[in-house]
Design goal:
Helix content is about 35%, strand content about 20%. The protein is an alpha/beta fold. It has a single domain, classed as TIM Barrel, CATH 3.20.20. The chain is globular, with a radius of gyration of 18 Å. It starts with a strand and ends in a 5-residue tail after the last helix.
Length: about 270
């Protein structure tokens, strides 16, 4: 049996319900869990390196606030709560670029705890999984995340950033060529990049996903909801490719789509 986790990043207080509904209704109806990495209190002026407003702020109208908590979008929260196929994952706090890529431990702890509180205040269960903005984590951030969460989902791990006491396990991971590993009670999951991205070929997207599935027991598929609605238009081809992949995963008896919380409950041995 091969396992797949679908992780969609950047849901926040400005995310239109219609976007999530358009993308994931067919998958939800097949019983496939969708892990939403939710920004607890999104910064309203986050910009790309070239100065443009980040794509996940596409629903942002003019606001005087520097940040907006997810709980302020009550229709979105209600929608997510009423559709339990969505599983909520903590995605940073404000989603600033260097938010968790620094050594200021007190600030890191503050942001982690405030983020969890914002999700709980909105009515979501306390998150067990953490996703760092832009996959950037300092040594101190890695330690504090591992103290508070059962799963860390990220793109990669670098020896120079790891706590020294993690080095032996990391060396074993590298020697065995494992994609995933564990520190204490925390699962450390890497993913093969954003396979579900508008920057990739839609016609070969399913084949690319299947190639990665064949090489691992567990694959984390990462996508971003706003990429399907970028530049104020709906990318029908991209959405069709997503639905094709979802249908394949849902119909294949040798593949099971699970959530991060399922993974914790199963205590699986991963490779």
């Amino acid at each position: 049996m091969r396992y797949v986790i679908i992780r969609d990043d950047d849901t926040n207080a400005f995310t239109p319900v219609r976007c999530l509904e358009t993308l994931y209704r067919p998958l939800l109806e097949m019983g496939l869990p969708i892990n939403l990495a939710v920004i607890p209190e999104v910064a309203t002026n986050t910009r790309t390196p070239d100065g443009r407003l980040e794509g996940f702020l596409l629903g942002n109208t003019e606001t005087a606030s520097s940040s907006v908590a997810i709980g302020e979008n009550k229709p979105l929260v209600q929608y997510l709560v009423e559709n339990p196929g969505y599983r909520i994952v903590q995605h940073g706090f404000h989603h600033d670029y260097f938010e968790f890529d620094n050594g200021q431990r007190a600030e890191i702890v503050k942001r982690l705890e405030q983020g969890t509180r914002a999700l709980s205040d909105a009515g979501f269960p306390a998150p067990q999984t953490f996703v760092a903005p832009y996959d950037k984590l300092s040594r101190a951030s890695l330690e504090e995340v591992a103290r508070r969460f059962r799963v860390l989902s990220t793109g990669w791990f670098e020896l120079r950033r790891l706590p020294l006491k993690w080095w032996p396990q990391y060396v074993l991971k590298k020697a065995s060529r494992a994609a995933h590993w564990r520190i204490g009670q925390t699962l450390l999951l890497s993913h093969p990049g954003c396979l579900l991205s508008y920057r990739r070929s839609f016609s070969s997207m399913l084949d690319t996903v299947l190639q990665h599935l064949s090489s691992q027991q567990l694959t984390v598929l990462v996508t971003h909801w706003w990429e399907y609605f970028r530049d104020n238009r709906t990318d029908e081809q991209f959405i069709e490719a997503l639905h094709e992949i979802g249908e394949y995963l849902g119909r294949n008896r040798d593949i099971k789509v699970i959530s991060f919380s399922d993974l914790v409950d199963r205590s699986m041995t991963l490779n």
